[in-house]
Amino acid sequence: MRVAFCCHSTLTSFHVKEITHLGRTADVFGAVLADAEISRTPAPKLPERNGLMTSTTGYIWNTLYGWTDTGSGGLLPSSVDSLTQPIGHHVAHPDTKRRLHELISASGLIDSLEQIDAQQATEADILRVHDKAHYDRILAESALPKGGDAGDGVSPFGNGGHRIALLAAGGAIEAVRAVVEGQVSNAYALINPPGHHAERSTGRGFCTFNNGAIAAAYALEVLGLKRVAIVDWDVHHGNGAQDIFRESAEVLNISVHQDRCFPSDSGFRDERGEGEGFGYTLNVPLPPGGGSGAYEYAFDTVVLPAVRAYQPELIIVASGFDASIMDPLARMMMRSDGFRSLARKLVDLSAEVSEGRLVCLQEGGYSPMYVPFCGLAVIEELAGVHTGTSDAYTPILGAMGGDELLDHEREAVDLAGVLVSDIH
Ligand code: 9RB
Ligand code: ZN
After folding, report:
1. Partners of residue 261 on adjacent β-strands
2. Per the count of CB atoms within 10 A, which of 76, 102, 275, 404 is most buried?
């Protein structure tokens, strides 16, 4: 079911009537919903928005995204020699993302989204950004009884894993296609495995193929766009798109990340692209400990001005939730309301520069408890729908503070802000 939503005088102020769930038992862990009757206020007749009377958010999930086999290690492979004991759940076990999908369903938000099917990306889609040798190696290792590794020894995949990786890249392509062709206004692709660390010739950091880069290349080479911006708010550096597009001015790649978290040897401010691409790689490394104050300042000072200067036709977001205060693989302090606020900024920005064309692609996020609340907040903002679901962790996490912008965070962001003037 789709919800038509009300578009006021400008694109930046569209909002939907709040959807109220009556008699809902807010048991997200049991995912039990009693009596989930939804009452909606009928949408008033709307002014036309790009010729469309309704505005929808596309959503992609596929059961196989929950079937990635991350092996028996926790982060490192399990090994008797190195005394890394086997563990039930690898840090990137797909249940975290499946739990986000289940909250989208249990909250009722899914009824307001247009579900779009992912198809496997083709070899040609992958080879727009990756070497043939990388593609061939992934297929060959995927055929082995126990699968293989995407490239760095900490990115295992199981037998047949190439099919899930192709489905993730294909989900990214499909989300971009649906938005650019006007089937939906914007989209969230809850894809897995992630992609933003995968470089032209290798996978790394749990990423096999670079879904975001593949989708950006599809937008440029197949759909005919001229300028695409990638905004990477995953807590780790978006090294993959930086590697793939370093000589291109057709992609503006902005990564806001915890300084030297992963990879520890990239993501510095002085990495700015090369040749024609100089200036179109923009890194905003943040000191550890930052919360929504640091992130909002980074967006207001660097990300938004850079994207406004660039005027892309499409914004792709590398949407990880590993900057959350609950994440085991980083040390930042974002909460769901912080992610909601970043999403709101990008929805408004996309209305300003790219006719609302905004596609979020799932990247990292390793707190099985908390990622669902962060993701729900972001997708609610994309859809302009509030389900009334409250972040169950706010009472404990909110009390920890950490949202104020600190002087050393402001200084780090301001140093990156200087680089915006080179973007045209
Ligand atoms: C270690 C290595 C990793 C790998 C991936 C991440 C996060 C990825 C993500 C963090 C650390 C290597 C421990 C390589 O969420 N991206 O968004 N660590 N990788 N070698 N060793 C010893
Ligand atoms: Zn990450």
Report:
1. none
2. 102
